[in-house]
Design goal:
The protein contains 5 helices and 7 strands, in the order βαααβββαβαββ. The chain has a single domain, classed as Aminopeptidase. By secondary structure, the protein is α+β, with helices and mostly antiparallel strands. The longest helix is centred in the middle third of the chain and has 16 residues. The protein is globular. The strands form 2 sheets. A 4-stranded antiparallel beta sheet has the order 1-2-3-4, covered by helices on one side. It has a 3-stranded antiparallel beta sheet with strand order 5-7-6, with helices on one face. The mean pLDDT is 95.
């Protein structure tokens, strides 16, 4: 799958160590509730039946991030050196358009933390609009979060 500046490919077992290393970076882990994973745990994560794991790459095949598709929407991170260049919004937009066009999702949502303004701005640039904010911590969130929905006209 391709965006204008990125491409996405399914994560495979060959990506496990890269993903473990990425999650070990404090500047990635802080956006994922400080979770880190062993190789065995990561292999199990990318093999989950209810989550599709993708590697975000530049159009030059340089791996720069991770995107997961779950029944409720998307989660994504880019490695710190890839941030701020519009690559995340490009990859997110490509995936959201694909999910809607394929009919696998009737709506695509994201749920960044309220404190993560850079992510909220990036999701907006991708075409997501804020639906509601101030959601209380729950099983999937350690802090208040924002619900955003993809709207291609954004």
């Amino acid at each position: 799958m391709r965006g204008k500046r990125t491409q996405l490919r399914r994560a495979t077992h060959a990506d496990v160590e890269r993903l473990v290393d990425w999650h070990a970076d404090p500047d990635v882990a802080r956006y994922w509730d400080d979770e880190t994973f062993t190789s065995v745990e990561m292999a199990a994560r990318i093999a989950r039946a209810d989550v599709d794991a993708w590697i975000v790459e530049t159009n030059d095949d340089d791996p720069i991030g991770y995107l997961q598709v779950h029944p409720d929407g998307l989660d994504m991170f880019l490695v710190p050196s890839a941030r701020g260049r519009g690559l995340g919004p490009d990859a997110a937009r490509a995936m959201a358009e694909h999910l809607l066009a394929s009919g696998s999702h009737r709506r695509v949502t994201v749920d960044p933390y309220e404190w993560n303004e850079p992510a909220i701005r990036a999701w907006r640039r991708a075409g997501f609009a804020e639906v509601s904010r101030g959601h209380a911590p729950d099983d999937d969130h350690l802090a208040p979060w924002v619900l955003m929905e993809y709207r291609s006209e954004c």
